[in-house]
Amino acid sequence: MADTEVTINGRSIIVSLDIDNNGSFLPVACLIENGMPTSRPPIDITSKCGNGYVAGDIVDQTITGSGIAINITGTPTKESYASLYTLLQNKTVVNCIFGPAAPTTGDTYYTGNIIVENLDLTASDKDVLKFNFVFKPTAGSLVQVKY
């Protein structure tokens, strides 16, 4: 039997937060892009006996992204940049999901607690207010889950 390949549309992959800790996840603002860089820096065991590396003990991961800053009026359907700023200021830990906006059976997503490590607002002339963010998982990395 032949393998079948299915591409994943990047537009469908978002970052959502459960800021109210009630199991209700909302997307982070109006995302332009998001990513999840993950690495395991090696331990250098180079000596006069020879060069070498072994797998490191720590997984280093962040959830990154950029978006268009929005204000929320009425019932929130997205988390605003102001919400992210409050999380950063208050050192708040919240649950995060990195994955499909509308998951279906077999989809993979990543989840776990994060803190807001960095928030960068940019207000350029002839443009809307935009922001960049970096979230840091509190347990080193998010957990991979199959839907």
Blueprint of the fold:
Blueprint: E1 13-18, E2 26-27, E3 30-35, E4 38-39, E5 43-44, E6 53-54, E7 60-61, E8 63-68, H1 81-90, E9 94-100, E10 108-122, E11 130-137, E12 143-146
Antiparallel strand pairs: 1-2, 1-9, 3-8, 4-7, 5-6, 8-11, 9-10, 10-11, 10-12
Secondary-structure content class: mainly beta
**Morphology:** globular
Number of domains: 1
> Which CATH architecture is right?
Roll
Beta-strand share of residues:
35-45%
**What value does the average pLDDT take?**
91
Q: What is the count of DSSP helices, taking H or I runs of 4+ residues?
A: 1
Which CATH class? Mainly Beta
Low-confidence stretches: none
Gyration radius, rounded = 18 Å
Reading the helices and strands in chain order gives: EEEEEEEEHEEEE
Annotated CATH topology: Pnp Oxidase, Chain A
Percent of residues in helices comes to under 10%
Number of strands: 12
Q: What distance separates the N and C termini? A: 25 Å
What profile does the largest beta sheet have? 8 strands, antiparallel
